[in-house]
Amino acid sequence: MRPFSYTAPATVAEAVDVLAASGPGTKILAGGTTLYDLMKLDIEAPTAVVDVHRLTELAAIDTTGPGEFSFGAAARMADVADDPVLRRDFPALAESLAKAASQQLRNMATVGGNLLQRTRCGYFRGGPAFPCNKREPGSGCAAFGGLDRGHAIFGGSDTCVATYPGDWAVALRAFDAVVDVIGPRGERTVAIADLHVEPGDTPQREHTLAGDELIVRIRVPVTSAGRGSTYHKIRDRESYAFALVSVAAGVAFDDQGAVEDCRIALGGVATLPWRCPAAEMVLTGERLTEESALRAGEAAFAGARPGAHNVFKIELGVRTVADALRIAGERAVR
Ligand code: SF4
Fold this sequence. Notes:
30% helix, 13 helices, Uridine Diphospho-n-acetylenolpyruvylglucosamine Reductase, domain 3, Uridine Diphospho-n-acetylenolpyruvylglucosamine Reductase, domain 2, Enolase-like, domain 1, oxidoreductase activity, FAD-bd_PCMH, FAD binding, oxidoreductase, alpha+beta, five-stranded antiparallel sheet, 334 residues
């Protein structure tokens, strides 16, 4: 590990001042469950670390509504996952957190830091023996011609096909969340749809926040489709594993029993949280049946570009979408 400076500001305002005075090698430390790993692997080598995880200003959880729920960036994943109102009114959000990582990690990790976690591509974390454009731009990509079983079938480029590894952001994407951020140039709000970016020619750039910007809170509009929702995660083992395919789904029905609002977003298959508007349109105005849910799943996975070892994600994904919609429909108020 390389030497670095460490600062623990007492307030958000102080944190902004520290970030304004910091150089480009500065990293924000929240729960530390990703940053410490990457520092030990020498993938992240910050010159300065600004620790915000004790800032109580950032830890508030507000599920009193009525129009939106709000989660401070430093709220712990476990605390948000266990919120009884969230579990009842927005099960997809609560489940996306409860099915992530392990209990110990969820006790430490924050809902703001979770949004910006880096990929689990084994070549990215495997060190200099493997070329990796994300770790070292221009060096190549070991996943091409290598083992790409866990890699993306949507949103990839010629430089990188690493999947976005998170669950929480996938559920937030399905329900049009926004992220409030603060930095030396003031406050702004970023739609979750605009937070993460595809790799393109710059796979080392994963999101649209500046290095001196701090996530303050995440806000989610309360919607009927939130009540009828689920986060369905398929993985190699039932705990402490990343998604092969995951689906955040929500539905709300009109008075006639047809779907009037449908939300579908995918995880584990794309380079960023992947919303599926074409699949949502398949169901909107239709009855939710086994057949229509499968049609929505097929629409969600149309246009997938699998590699050598991950074509199985298409069939698995179609069926996971259908199953998620069934669960969501059973929970929806009719
Ligand atoms: Fe690196 Fe992306 Fe290739 Fe993985 S897929 S080795 S992260 S460039």
